[in-house]
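Risk register update: the risk of archive-format incompatibility is retired. Evidence:
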Amino acid sequence: MDVALIIHYVWACLLAVGPILGYIPQYFDIKKTRNYQGFSPVICFILLTSNILRILSFILTPFDVFLLAQSIFMVLVQLLVLQIIVKYSAREILPASSPMPSSSDEKKNYFESFWAWNSFLDYLIFLFCFTSFFALIVLFDKFVYSSKFIEITFLYTSTLIESTLCMPQVLTNWRNGSTAGLHKSLVVSWIFGDLFKLCYYLYSKSRMPFVVCAIIQISVDFIIIIQILYYHFKVKLSKEEISRASSTVPLKDSK
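Archived output:
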């Protein structure tokens, strides 16, 4: 058997499975601590919507089947992560003395707190409607009116959404003033996964949107690394200052 062909298939399998591996320890970390505040749920939104669009775009223009497998695996994993986030969300736990919200309040909160709902079913309903709407467009374009514009729009839109993957995490870290709760193995998987994807896209001569997406993601990955280092040394300096301050406090003479 051709060695180059074996290497290609191994490389492609890693591409399909690799990106989801970093979310496994993050999932168990949230489950263990029952706290997701260090991880941005918007990441789930970005990965779910972008990969659903990518799967649908495959119907219009088939691309590498391993990239299709990657999108399917990612959708399944993100649903698991989203489910555990909703389960341990503080919004689900109301004090016993809290008044029950009225139906008008529930409708208001539903639309005002987009992607911060209290029920996992709400997310599934949104994703079902999102998928159904764009699936109808794809089927219409496929069997009724074929348009190159729709085909290109789907591919570029899904790629553009995915390229913003780590940006919500950058904002979450900045607002929290910390990277606590963000599993470092997830960040490592982002970096190596994006570098791996970029190499694969260049090697397989994939479409330009995939290459641009990988480059943007790598750039944001390094911003997160800078944040991790910055907040680490900031905490370290604060501890050292507290330690020095406590050691220089004069002891009162006992009478």
